[in-house]
Inverse folding.
């Protein structure tokens, strides 16, 4: 029997024991600590809160401990003057470039590294040689063609001249996709070196050799060219790693130096060219009508056709031997790309960003209609607006989206996007949103990494992850309930709970499951950081601080991690460690709950309550069996005495006197506490997945009220495996749900509820849904006939073995 | 003694229309719940991958959102490319259905295990024909035990339960 003056405690152990276990707890008012570790000592190496200093590089004068560029931050400048000819007969690029390389580093350089990315299309490239054998059980004609084409097509760079500005040959060595130019004399800090290169290469046919660049030939022989990573480009030389001269193997994209470009592109006269930069000779290449339309588009409220669909169709029919040279200039960009075709429809609208005009423009063939004219340019404008609010205002004069053979790829001011409608002009919902999403994503890359110049050959997540996060935000601001594929924590759980992963902090070429890792997991992590850990205001401030600090500079991972903490005053080392440096996942479960009820001490209140509970206890099997058993007392009532009528839970005058006496000894505060009727629930949580996260609870009370409790991740500091949290409440709790808004990417919801709930698998839920017949439920069936015909349930599922 | 085995295989070539197909995921995820002798499988993929795979397999242009025979095509495709094999040969697949939304395609099917499941292997070769970089994950759950297999085109099979 429970002593009347002691509080009671009830432990619920939902995962182990389904029944309530009554125990006695010596709780004297508010004496239970809010946090009590239960697991004892654990290895320091397993401490998820240990500081990141052991992993992050030591701050320097170029990169501070706050995550900002240091007072001696430097980066190289590289300017290019390029003349390029697009050979529409042979599908080749021939170019000449003059490069001015300015050594802003404190170091003396004896050689320069350049990237020859087209060398990836050599049959003997590292990528080709390192490719593993394909499966051969079933091969499509396209795959087979690609396989054979890859053995014969040579799209590598042919260098015909490498000289200094006076025409003297320079020594150079080609190493795969890299070229080293040995300088005639050391290039000292603050000095510049000017040199010239002539080159050519064959453009890849994207239907056979897909990539980030290439051409697409249509049935009538017309072609769209998307030309990128096409000229010898200076590799980055930076303060952390020196030369970024890792080979281009296909997955890791690139980082380059900022500079000014003056590019003359010679193409067939009937082509329309879309390009990085601003067109500087419109009178030479555009018709008067096109120029007038551009003027109209400067103030238009909707995109204006500069080349209409009919005009593009007409151009497709023609054939010309003459050429035109389009000249584009671009300032402070880290790369340069263009597209060219006579198939292009061109629409444009000028918008104002930070008081400056920006052209939002789209180029696409009639095969892209009606989808492209409806959504492309609007998607560009929307992206500039939303990214501008989260990062910084778009600083370039143009943002362009082109439809062609490349599925989705970004360059400064211009990006290539693949989705098209069906041949009959219809399109699915998925194609529509796929187009809008890819345009948002690729235009968004102008911010990360084209301006915030992170190194994608080293760290894919630094631009793909951050960009995917902002893509999600931009999609959500496009229309209500936009079907975003990434960003919501619940969408990453399948990936997170699997093993065979690598951390986000893995080199681009070594990533497993590229999309899930660098894009989706990073975007989800940032979304969780914003919504659950930091809050929107703090996160947005810190994120924009990072973007602004590193605009037109080259950040490293530590600069991002440090800035987010520096600008928010929140120690996020545990978050970076868990989400970026490990493959742990989130799985927090409720292990048990102990309910402690403070008794009033008043016998007229407590004893009847206890009596009712005692009387409600179930009758044991033995007692039930013995109920009719004849006993001695049936024939001899004399054996009864005082104790047979005595019930210790009956209230006596002695009880009342004792209570009165004890009560009189309490001061006012103690009496108020005694009368507070508080309830104490000690809830124990287990961290199954290993990733520490805030604990979010929905607490439901007997009176129907709900309360949300948000416990910061620091609750796991004392013990990252198990914690106990005390909830002090006024009313009885009837249920607790962990992560009720699915905001932490918890991978196993079966241990998230008290009392436990049976969590059905997707498989079970689907089967149940499939068994349902809405017509029957609506009473539209024929009764007995439907009953005899059970429909396509489990038993009638088609069997294999065809 | 070293013994080199030459296996001659009939290379099946499949005609298909050229379709733009680009996204960075290149992975499918399957969860296989072992309940007694039944294995219930939910295979999740991007809808674009499924559409492209079914287009290639059927040799015709189709739309997984609207075409009436998608369920049958998906069934045939999965039967061809996702197998459980015991010592006595392939285990029969029972097709349950598929569910396609804007964001994901989920395929549901099950197998019945032999009395002794220790020799059963799982092979997931779905979507390998789309890109050599494709990876298939199969998470096998049996009670509280869980193991994840990762399959590449070069290595598409493993013991079901380790």
């Amino acid at each position: 029997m429970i002593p009347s003056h002691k509080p009671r405690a009830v432990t619920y152990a939902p995962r182990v024991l389904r029944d309530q276990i009554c125990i006695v707890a010596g709780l004297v008012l508010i004496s239970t600590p809010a946090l009590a570790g239960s697991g004892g000592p654990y290895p320091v190496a397993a401490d998820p809160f240990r500081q990141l200093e052991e992993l992050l590089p030591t701050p320097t004068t170029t990169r501070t401990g706050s995550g900002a560029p240091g007072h001696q931050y430097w980066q190289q400048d590289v300017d290019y003057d390029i003349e390029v000819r697009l050979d529409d007969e042979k599908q080749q690029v021939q170019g000449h470039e003059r490069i001015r390389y300015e050594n802003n580093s404190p170091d003396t350089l004896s050689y320069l590294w350049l990237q020859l990315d087209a060398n990836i299309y050599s049959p003997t490239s590292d990528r080709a040689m390192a490719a593993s054998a394909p499966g051969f059980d079933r091969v499509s004609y396209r795959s087979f063609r690609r396989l054979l084409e890859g053995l014969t097509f040579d799209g590598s760079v042919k260098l015909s001249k490498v000289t200094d500005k006076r025409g003297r040959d320079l020594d150079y060595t080609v190493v795969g996709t890299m070229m080293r130019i040995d300088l005639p004399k050391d290039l000292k800090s603050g000095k510049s070196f000017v040199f010239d290169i002539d080159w050519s290469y064959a453009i890849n046919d994207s239907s056979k050799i897909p990539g980030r660049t290439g051409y697409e030939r249509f049935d009538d022989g017309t072609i769209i060219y998307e030309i990128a990573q096409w000229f010898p480009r200076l590799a980055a030389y930076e303060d952390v790693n020196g030369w970024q001269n890792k080979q281009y193997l296909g997955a890791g994209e690139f980082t380059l130096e900022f500079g000014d470009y003056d590019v003359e592109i010679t193409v067939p006269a009937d082509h329309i060219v879309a390009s990085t930069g601003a067109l500087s000779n419109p009178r030479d290449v555009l018709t008067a009508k096109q120029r007038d339309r551009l003027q109209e588009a400067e103030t238009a409220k909707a995109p204006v056709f500069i080349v209409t669909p009919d005009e593009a169709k007409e151009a497709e029919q023609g054939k010309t031997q003459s050429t035109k040279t389009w000249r584009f200039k671009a300032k402070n960009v880290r790369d340069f790309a263009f597209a060219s075709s006579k198939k292009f429809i061109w629409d444009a609208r000028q918008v104002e960003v930070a008081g400056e005009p920006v052209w939002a423009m789209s180029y696409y063939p009639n095969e892209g209609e009606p989808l492209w004219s409806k959504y492309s340019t609007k998607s560009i404008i929307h992206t500039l607006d939303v990214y501008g609010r989260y990062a910084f205002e778009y600083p370039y004069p143009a943002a362009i989206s082109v439809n062609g053979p490349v599925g989705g790829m970004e360059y400064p001011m211009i990006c290539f996007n693949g989705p098209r409608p069906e041949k009959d002009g219809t399109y699915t919902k998925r194609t529509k949103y796929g187009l809008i999403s890819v345009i948002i994503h690729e235009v968004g890359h102008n911010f990360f990494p084209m301006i915030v110049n992170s190194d994608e050959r080293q760290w894919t997540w630094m631009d793909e992850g951050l960009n995917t996060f902002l893509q999600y935000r931009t999609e959500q601001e496009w229309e209500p309930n936009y079907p975003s594929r990434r960003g919501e924590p619940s969408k990453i759980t399948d990936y997170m709970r699997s093993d065979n992963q690598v951390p986000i902090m893995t080199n681009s070429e070594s990533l497993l499951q590229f999309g899930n890792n660098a894009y989706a997991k990073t975007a989800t992590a940032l979304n969780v950081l914003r919504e659950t850990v930091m809050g929107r205001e703090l996160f947005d401030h810190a994120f924009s601080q990072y973007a602004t600090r590193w605009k037109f500079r080259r950040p490293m991972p530590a600069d991002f991690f440090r800035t987010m903490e520096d600008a928010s005053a929140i120690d996020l080392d545990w978050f970076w460690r868990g989400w970026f440096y490990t493959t742990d996942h989130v799985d927090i479960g409720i292990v048990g709950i102990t309910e402690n009820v403070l008794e009033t001490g008043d016998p007229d209140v407590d004893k009847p309550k206890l009596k009712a509970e005692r009387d409600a206890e179930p009758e044991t099997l033995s007692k039930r069996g013995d109920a009719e058993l004849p006993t001695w007392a049936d024939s001899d009532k004399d054996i009864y005495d005082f104790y047979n009528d005595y019930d210790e839970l009956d209230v006596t005058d002695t009880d009342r006197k004792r209570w009165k006496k004890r009560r009189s000894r309490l001061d006012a505060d103690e009496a108020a506490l005694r009368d507070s009727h508080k309830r104490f629930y000690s809830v124990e949580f287990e961290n199954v997945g290993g990733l520490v996260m805030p604990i979010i609870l929905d607490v439901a009370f007997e009176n129907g009220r709900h309360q949300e409790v948000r416990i910061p991740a620091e609750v796991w500091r004392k013990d990252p495996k198990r914690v106990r949290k005390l909830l002090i409440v006024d009313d009885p709790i009837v249920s607790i749900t962990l992560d009720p808004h699915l905001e932490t990417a918890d991978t196993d919801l079966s241990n998230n509820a008290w009392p436990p709930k049976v969590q059905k698998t997707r498989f079970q839920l689907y089967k149940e849904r499939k068994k349902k017949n809405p017509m029957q439920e609506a009473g539209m069936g024929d009764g007995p006939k439907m009953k005899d015909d059970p429909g396509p349930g489990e038993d009638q599922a088609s069997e294999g073995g065809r | 003694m070293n013994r080199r085995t030459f296996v001659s295989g009939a290379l099946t070539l499949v005609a298909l229309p050229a379709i733009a197909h680009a996204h960075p995921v290149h992975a499918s995820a399957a969860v296989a719940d072992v309940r007694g002798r039944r294995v219930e499988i939910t295979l999740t993929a991007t809808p674009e991958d499924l559409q492209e795979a079914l287009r290639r397999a059927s040799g015709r242009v189709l739309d997984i959102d609207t075409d009436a025979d998608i369920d049958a095509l998906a069934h045939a495709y999965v039967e061809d490319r996702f197998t459980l094999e015991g010592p006595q040969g392939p285990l029969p697949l029972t097709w349950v259905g598929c569910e396609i939304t804007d964001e994901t395609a989920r395929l549901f099917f099950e197998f019945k295990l032999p009395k002794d499941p220790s020799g059963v292997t799982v092979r997931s070769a779905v979507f390998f024909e789309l890109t050599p970089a494709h990876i298939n994950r199969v998470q096998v759950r049996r009670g509280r035990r869980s193991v994840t297999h990762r399959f590449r085109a070069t290595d598409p099979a493993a013991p079901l339960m380790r």
Observations:
- The helical segments of chain B are 47-58, 70-81.
- The longest strand of chain B covers residues 27-35.
- Confidence is low (pLDDT under 50) at residues 1-22 of chain B.
